[in-house]
Amino acid sequence: MQKTAGIHHITAMVNDAQRNIDFYAGVLGLRLIKKTINFDRPEVYHLYFGNEKGEPGTVITFFPWEKQLKGRIGKGQVGVTSYMIPMGSLSFWVNRLKKFNIETHVSNRFGEKYLKFHDPDGLLLELVEREEGPTNSWSFGSIQAETAIKGFSGATLYSAQPHKTTEVLEHVLGLECIGQEGDFLRFKTDGLIGNTVDIQLNPTVRGLMGAGTVHHIAWRAKDEVELLGWRSLLQDKGYYPTEIRDRNYFKALYFHEEGGILFEIATDPPGFSVDERVAELGEKLMLPSWLESKRKELEETLSPVAVRVLEGDK
Ligand code: ZN
Fold it and tell me: What are the strands, taking DSSP E only, across the chain?
């Protein structure tokens, strides 16, 4: 049976592009690895943040759109996005978030300490110390490799039907259930990053899609052969996967699992250096070839944004 190595990327909706960059790059110190547009709506940015090379398991992406109504986190969504930080760096992050006036609180599950907080649009995030996972050598502001976020530790799914979501995690994606603690079921992959997925068994409210909520979660496929394998397995099991779509940086398919969450499966290759050198990732507005002729008007429509070191972080 094919098994995913874990989370490929997570995509969420927010209102303001510069505020989004100031938080994920400025505060969290992730690298803006790709600045492009929503291929279906070119007047909207699509921003990608990840580790230095933008490797699968580290990438969060956003569609910042000012007119987007506010959503509500709840059933049928990824409720919490979790990042892994190096061992011994939690106090650095407590102080850093405090410095930027971000309220945090600490909770424990499965023997680990989680630092939870909201991003400026209301998305729920948390940090957890983990030994595993490759070090992120992207340093930014006062963040160095020994404190930098490595990538996802995992995510918490607010499923409307936990046993159905369990079924797809175990019998389609190949995750292993490793235990239950209170309201949480925990699943693991064989990968080293983005490898821990919790299902929250009793989310209270129904989710409403909109700004401040996760749009979908993508799982890793090694290559297109695996992706096709998953497509036929999904069809055999009665799901309705989309055709395979070319997303420039990966190939992908999408389906709704029965707990209401939009799942994507995406290939590791070719990756984010397909159209920019690793040293220059995120610097230029990247457009798909069919929109290149409209570059000038698009650049005039999109409000200019920049990665900047925030006040007090020099
Ligand atoms: Zn996606």
Answer: 7-14, 31-38, 41-50, 59-64, 77-85, 105-109, 112-118, 124-129, 151-158, 176-181, 184-188, 196-200, 213-221, 245-246, 250-256, 262-270, 285-286
Q: How confident is the model at residue 53 (pLDDT cuts 50, 70, 90)?
A: very high
pLDDT digits (tens, 9 = 90+) for 165-175: 999 999 999 99
What distance in angstroms lies between residue 11's CA and the mean position of ligand 1's atoms?
6
Q: Is it the case that residue 314 has pLDDT exceeding 80?
A: no
Neighbours of 156 (CB within 10 A): 23
What separation in Å is there between the alpha carbon of 8 and the centre of ligand 1?
8
Q: How far is the CA of 41 from the centre of ligand 1 (A)?
A: 15
Spell out which residues have Cβ within 5 A of ligand 1, the ion: 11, 218, 264
How far, in Å, from the CA of 87 to the mean position of ligand 1? 29
Q: Does domain 7-313 have CATH number 3.10.180.10?
A: yes
